[in-house]
Specification:
globular; alpha/beta; 8 helices; Rossmann fold; binds nicotinamide-adenine-dinucleotide; 259 residues
Length: 259
């Protein structure tokens, strides 16, 4: 018996660097997987690769009707929906607050925050029909402190924390657990390619060298934590925040001269 046999998992941003790793791992552990994303080409290719227990659904997380269709598609294809991973997210082009236009602010908040709200709102009744399940909202280490030049993203990820804790309180009695994961810097297109409107990618100026574990995170690092949090091994965990950052939030690991 695999950990996710007879379960159905919906992953938003499911074709991205981390999302596709999550989708593949849930599938390998027995789950039916619903890949929600706006990238239809990559979504269809991943669903084809995985076969009968996988579906791609065109899901723009900012769109209410797109969400109803995704949940309906998951239930019609596979029966009960038991896990939702709100993973879709975008970064703003770096800029001071005073140089950040309202359209950029709204776009980042719409995808990262409103998308997570709409996802939980659409999926909660389905998880209740399944008699319980788990939601994980992907936040960021940037949701635990300030970061210059990233105000929209930082604000969106801080807000996801409050939303998550509120949902955990509202859904606990229905056997639905809700937690956040806060990745540090993970090697995906998110850091390897410039954000929309930006000229440089994060990987062009960020180095993990000063930190306790001096490497970039891999998508599979986050996937392993996600599978634990959504599995029955985590049945007493809700409203909690999991940092996975190789020590980034600790600050530089200064190597003192020793005798
Ligand atoms: N990579 C990192 O360093 C890092 C660090 C902390 C947190 N995160 C978070 O991890 C999550 C996954 O990011 P990633 O690293 O895999 O990035 P990625 O760019 O590889 O993937 C993001 C995915 O989201 C999808 N997406 C964008 N807008 C969407 C929308 N409106 N509706 C549906 N899907 C949409 C994209 O098509 C893409 O597949 C994001 O929430 C991101 O904020 C990433």
């Amino acid at each position: 018996m695999r950990r996710f046999d007879d379960q159905t998992v919906l992953v938003t941003g499911g074709t991205g660097g981390q999302g596709s790793s999550h989708v593949r791992a849930f599938h390998a552990e027995g789950a039916n997987v619903v890949i929600g994303d706006i990238d239809a080409e990559r979504g269809a290719a991943l669903a084809d690769e995985l076969g009968a227990r996988a579906r791609f659904i065109h899901l723009d997380v900012t769109d209410e009707s797109s969400w109803s269709a995704a949940v309906l598609a998951a239930e019609s294809a596979f029966g009960a929906l038991t896990v939702l991973v709100n993973n879709a997210g975008v970064q703003n082009p770096p800029a001071l607050i005073e140089k950040t236009d309202q359209a950029t602010w709204s776009r980042i908040l719409d995808i990262n925050l409103t998308g997570t709200f709409l996802g939980m709102r659409a999926a909660a009744p389905a998880l209740r029909r399944a008699t319980g399940g788990a939601i994980v909202n992907i936040a960021s280490t940037m949701g635990l402190g300030g970061t210059a030049h990233y105000a929209p993203y930082v604000a969106s990820k801080w807000a996801v924390r409050g939303l998550t804790q509120t949902a955990a309180l509202e859904l606990g009695r229905d056997h639905i657990r809700v937690n956040t994961i806060h990745p540090g810097v993970i090697a995906t297109p998110f850091i390897q390619e410039p954000a929309a409107g930006a000229t440089a990618a994060i990987a062009d100026f960020y180095s993990p060298e000063p930190f306790a574990i001096p490497r970039l995170g891999e998508p599979t690092d986050v996937t392993r934590l996600l599978l634990f949090l959504t599995s029955s091994d985590a049945s007493f965990i809700t409203g909690s925040e999991y940092v996975i950052d190789g020590g980034l939030l600790l600050g530089p690991a200064l190597q003192a001269e020793t005798a």
